[in-house]
Structure formats: structure tokens, C-alpha cells
Design goal:
The protein is an alpha/beta fold and about 600 residues long. It is about 25% helix and about 25% strand. Strands 20, 21, 22, 23, 24, 25, 26, 27, 28 and 32 form a 10-stranded mixed β-sheet that branches. It has a 7-stranded mixed β-sheet with strand order 3-2-7-16-17-18-19, with no helix packed on it. Helix 4 packs parallel to helix 6, helix 8 packs across helix 9 and helix 11 packs antiparallel against helix 12. The longest helix is centred in the first third of the chain and has 18 residues. About 60% of the residues are buried.
Length: about 600
């Protein structure tokens, strides 16, 4: 597969002539898929049909047994034939493995196309990181539509990432043939208020004639109308069934994501109540942790869960195939029909969705869960050496203050944050963490500013009996540390620094678990199984030092706690930032109450 020439490759006159001859019976097929039940994405039928392929093209969909002339036959007896699945919004880096490893994981499960926003690599390695991503997928059979990251950083002025993509940089990236549009516009307030920098980025996408993808969490009413009118055309940040309806009414393409499983039953109920599947509903994974990827899969897992929650199987598949292709403007994809691209999955059933055979461009790419020829990595050396930060001391995780008692600003609640206040004692020149608070520290690690941690207090984050440090911290990916005491925070942070990036858990002054992620501080070169195992061990170790309270106080909340583009206060490498007011507080100390 070559993203640069698709879909023009199917225009080839020799290919079409040969396929037409095969379709009318004047020449044999290259491949015949026989004995299966076709899931028709247009009519919704489950009908017996055989499919003849010529090169990368579907030449014929015809009555079973009508033809036997083919160079090779793929047996689909007792199984269901579907187009390849299309993941309309995702980040490979969230799975903490290389693009080749990711492709080897999802292709055998039936995912044949992904839309990758590499803004994690962009935030750490700049344009060179996005270029590396483009090179990494250039020869992969996993069809990848690469997007130009719009959020580097996600909240300019409130945080510092490893790079800064303004409209000029985005316009340059949009000229690359691999780039299919602008990735999620996360600075919602900037789009709505017409802020010059953000408006220029949107305009760059519109001028290039490429879609501008959205991130419209909790937007409603006039704000939602303004966001869409600005030129944004999709959203994956749904929070309820009512939100889904309002976004559909606003004309957005919906990327129904699997990474927030607790919301899926409500979405299924809402869609079923409509009595039909809107053609603007597509499916995406967004973020998949490595142990989930290894155990459950990628977009196939989203399809499986939606069906389990009550969505008709044909609807779930249509959202994951034809609707996704329409969103991408790729009329060669998403349908098993004559003249379309031969990207086909043979599923054992429509419950477990276990892929028997995966065909990409007319070639059998995977069988029974294994790649015929595994994808190999390109050179990863450009992603090394991104931890530009010296070891930290225990005092770096304490907040200096005058007097003996102070009033503090706190960040209340996971995910949907709000401002709060607390009173604290001061001992030895440092604030004593108030009862019921958790320390959070963010240290700049990209070498563009001082790396002294900015420390704040979280409320509603439970009682931490140790510390967790991570360089996977959306989306600037600075070193972020959570903890109940400064000592363990320093231990965890220094373990991550020494590893060249990654995650660590510490308690009692020692490291309990470590996951090195030396590629941009985000990704490992190790096999998926090894990364998945280490990640699961680390997640278990975090669970031993804090008691989670789903659905919002969960492990995943640690990675979005610094997402400063979202409404409410968030800790960043510059301090406590609030995108609504533009306010940044370097220290949480509001007032000295007692000298």
C-alpha cells in the first residue's frame, strides 16, 4: 500500500480491462472468495455471495458457486465477509509501541485503515516527529491517513511542549501527500472566540481543501454552532446520548470512540431509539493502552462491544466501514462491491468478530490472527534523547511559602476540573499538604525552558500512598508526577528520567514498577506482549498506592490531568493554567494568612 498514490492506483487502464474481462467470465479471477455470507453495507442484508478479485480490485460479487475459475480460492464457508474496518481517529503512540508493531497487532483483527493524529510525536519531536511518522507508515499494508497535528501545544501560552506549530508550519505539513487533513482542534475556546493563531490554523486546512477534525468536549448551544461554523467537521469527545444527538444535528461527523466504555451503552440506546444508523456516525479507538491492544484489539473491540450493548451487528459494521469511507472521501473503500478496492475481512461470526482472513489490496495479509509477512520497523534513532532534564530532589516537589499558614488554590475533581481552595500550614518554609489533597508536579523536559517542577494540589483524587511519574502526559508530554509525599515523587521522577522517559511507581522510598519508553518518552521498541505485560504490572502497582473511584477517578485520568485546552484549571509546566481566563499561577499560594 502506498498512501501517496491511492486511490488513483485503481484508475490503471490495464487493471480495469483485466478486471472487466474477469467480471464477464472471459478471464479467470486472481482470487475467489467462496462460500461466505456477505454483510451488505448498503442494504443491510446478510446474503450468500462469492467475490472475485483481480489485483487490488473487486471484479465481481456474484451468486455462490457460479464461478470456480481463479488462480487461488479463499474458503469463507460458514463465515461473514465484510469490508476492512476503518478507525477514523486514533493515536498510535497511546499504545506505546511502534507503528510497525501496531500494524502487526490490528491487521490480523480486521482493521485495514486508520486515521492517525501523530500529535504526541509532534509535541515532543516537532515537525521531525511527524515526518518520522509519515516515513514509518509509507510501506505498511495498514492503510494510514496521517493528519497534521493542530495542537502543538494544545494550549499555547499556558504550557510549553517540545515544539510550536503555528499556521505556517501546519500549511507546510498539509502540502505533504500523506496528509489527509488537520487533526483534532483541541483549543476549542480559541476556535470559538476567533483567536488569531487558531483561526489561521483552521483556515490553512480549509484553504488546502482538507477536512478539519474536531475535539468538541461538552460544547453545546451557541459555542457548538460557532465551533462548527468555523470549519470544524467532526467530533469524538461525546459525553452523553443527548450530546450525541446535538452533535448529529449540528452536522458533525461523529467518531464514536471506544476508549470511554462507560458511555457506549447510552450511545447505543440513543441510536437504537432513532431507528436507523446516521451515515455520519463512524467509529474510532482514540487511545488504546498496550495491554488492552494485546488482549482485546483495536477497532474490532469497539465493534464487538457495541454489538454486545445492543447495536445491530450490521449497523456497527457499517459505522466501521462504509460510513468511515464516506467521511474520508474514499469511495474505493468501505464496500464489498464491484469496482471497489479489495480490502476485505472474513469474520468467523458477528458476535466475537474473530477474523479468519484479512485481505489488503487483493492479497491475503493475515490468516487466523497472524500476519503472513510481519511489518518491520524503520530506524527509531531520531526518537531517542528527549529527556532534557537533570535529576530532581525531594525539595523540588515541595511548595515554598512564607509565614505559618496560607490559603491555597486547588484543582478539584478529575477530568471535569474546577477551582477550589484550602488552608494549609507552613513548616520549615514549605507548605504542608492539606488533608485530602494530592500533590501534582509538572516539569518541562524538552529543553526549551527551565525544568523546575511546578507543583500544585489536586482535590478529589483519593489518598495516595506513594507516587506515579509519567512522560505520557497529554499532550505536551512533560514529566508529570502524582503523589502523597515529596520523597516518593522524587524517586519515581528520577527513575523515569534515568530510563529516557516512561512511567514509574514508587512507595516507601523505592521503585515498585518501571516501564521505560525511550522513544520520545512515549513508545517502546519492545514487542507488544512485553510492553503490555510491563504496563499491566505498572497499572497494578499504581492501583496499590491509590484507590480508584470509577468512572472519573481512574488510572487513565492521570494522563489527561495536564490537558490545559480543556475547560477548568490544569497543572502544566508553567503552573496552574485555566484556558477560559488565560490565567497561569506559578504557585498555588494565594495568600499568607499568618506570618
Amino acid at each position: 500500500m502506498n498512501a501517496v498514490i491511492e486511490p488513483q492506483d485503481l484508475i490503471d487502464a490495464t487493471l480495469r480491462t483485466r478486471a472487466v474481462a474477469a467480471a464477464r467470465g472471459a478471464a479467470p479471477f486472481d482470487v475467489l472468495i467462496a462460500g461466505g455470507t456477505l454483510v451488505d453495507m448498503v442494504t443491510g442484508e446478510l446474503r450468500r455471495a462469492d467475490i472475485g478479485l483481480v489485483g487490488p480490485l473487486i471484479a465481481s460479487v456474484h451468486q455462490p458457486g457460479a464461478r470456480t475459475d481463479a488462480a487461488s480460492v479463499v474458503d469463507a464457508s460458514g463465515a461473514f465477509v465484510s469490508p476492512g474496518l476503518i478507525d477514523t481517529h486514533m493515536h498510535i503512540e497511546s499504545s506505546m509501541v511502534t507503528p510497525a508493531t501496531y500494524a502487526n497487532a490490528v491487521l490480523p483483527r480486521g482493521v485495514t485503515t486508520i486515521v492517525w493524529d501523530p500529535h504526541e510525536f509532534g509535541n515532543v519531536n516537532g515537525v521531525a516527529g511527524v515526518r518520522w511518522a509519515a516515513d514509518a507508515i509509507s510501506s505498511s499494508p495498514l492503510r494510514t491517513v496521517l493528519l497534521a497535528p493542530s495542537s502543538v501545544p494544545s494550549a499555547p501560552g499556558l504550557e510549553l511542549a517540545g515544539a510550536d506549530f503555528d499556521a505556517e508550519a501546519i500549511a507546510d505539513i498539509l502540502r505533504w501527500p500523506e496528509i489527509g487533513g488537520i487533526a483534532e482542534m483541541m483549543n476549542m475556546r480559541g476556535v470559538i472566540d476567533g483567536e488569531a493563531r487558531i483561526s489561521a490554523i483552521v483556515q490553512a486546512g480549509l484553504a488546502a481543501g482538507k477536512p478539519v477534525n474536531g475535539h468538541a468536549r461538552s460544547l453545546a448551544g451557541a459555542d457548538l454552532q460557532a465551533f462548527v461554523t468555523a470549519g470544524v467537521s467532526s467530533d469524538h469527545e461525546l459525553v452523553s446520548g443527548d450530546d450525541l444527538i446535538e452533535k448529529l444535528r449540528a452536522g458533525l461527523s461523529i467518531e464514536l470512540r471506544g476508549s470511554h466504555d462507560h458511555l457506549l451503552p447510552d450511545f447505543v440506546k440513543t441510536i437504537n431509539a432513532m431507528g436507523h444508523l446516521p451515515q455520519t456516525v463512524t467509529l474510532c479507538t482514540d487511545d488504546v493502552f498496550p495491554d488492552d491492544l494485546a488482549g482485546a484489539g483495536g477497532l474490532d473491540d469497539v465493534v464487538r462491544r457495541l454489538v454486545r450493548y445492543g447495536l445491530p451487528a450490521a449497523w456497527a459494521l457499517r459505522a466501521a466501514t462504509l460510513n468511515g469511507a464516506i467521511r474520508l472521501g474514499r469511495h474505493d473503500l468501505g464496500l464489498v462491491a464491484p469496482g471497489r478496492r479489495a480490502g476485505i475481512v472474513i469474520f468467523e461470526d458477528l458476535v466475537a468478530f474473530r477474523a479468519r482472513t484479512v485481505i489488503v489490496d487483493g492479497r491475503v495479509t493475515a490468516e487466523f490472527g497472524r500476519m503472513v509477512e510481519p511489518v518491520t520497523d524503520i530506524d527509531v534513532a531520531p526518537l531517542h534523547g528527549t529527556m532534557k532534564i537533570a535529576p530532581l530532589s525531594e525539595n523540588d516537589f515541595r511548595i515554598p511559602a512564607d509565614g505559618t499558614k496560607v490559603r491555597l488554590a486547588t484543582i478539584d475533581r478529575p477530568r471535569f476540573t474546577q477551582w477550589g481552595e484550602a488552608i494549609a500550614e507552613v513548616e520549615g518554609g514549605f507548605v504542608v499538604p492539606p488533608e485530602g489533597t494530592t500533590l501534582i508536579a509538572v516539569a518541562h523536559r524538552h529543553g526549551r525552558a527551565d525544568s523546575r517542577p511546578r507543583v500544585g494540589f489536586l482535590s478529589g483524587w483519593g489518598n495516595w500512598r506513594g507516587a506515579f511519574a509519567t512522560t505520557v502526559s497529554h499532550d505536551s508530554h512533560n514529566l508529570t508526577v502524582f503523589g502523597g509525599n515529596a520523597g516518593d515523587m522524587a524517586v519515581a521522577a528520577n527513575a523515569v528520567i534515568a530510563a529516557g522517559g516512561g512511567m514509574a511507581v514508587a512507595s516507601g522510598g523505592k521503585v515498585d514498577a518501571l516501564l521505560p519508553l525511550p522513544l520520545a518518552g512515549l513508545v517502546s521498541e519492545e514487542p507488544l506482549e512485553a510492553v503490555a505485560s510491563s504496563f499491566a504490572e505498572l497499572r497494578d502497582a499504581v492501583g496499590r498506592i491509590v484507590d480508584w473511584q470509577p468512572p472519573y477517578l481512574v488510572f487513565k485520568a492521570c494522563f489527561g490531568a495536564t490537558l490545559a485546552c480543556n475547560a477548568g484549571p490544569h497543572q502544566t509546566d508553567r503552573g496552574i493554567a485555566d484556558v477560559t481566563t488565560g490565567r497561569v499561577m506559578e504557585s498555588p499560594v494565594l495568600e499568607v494568612l499568618e506570618a
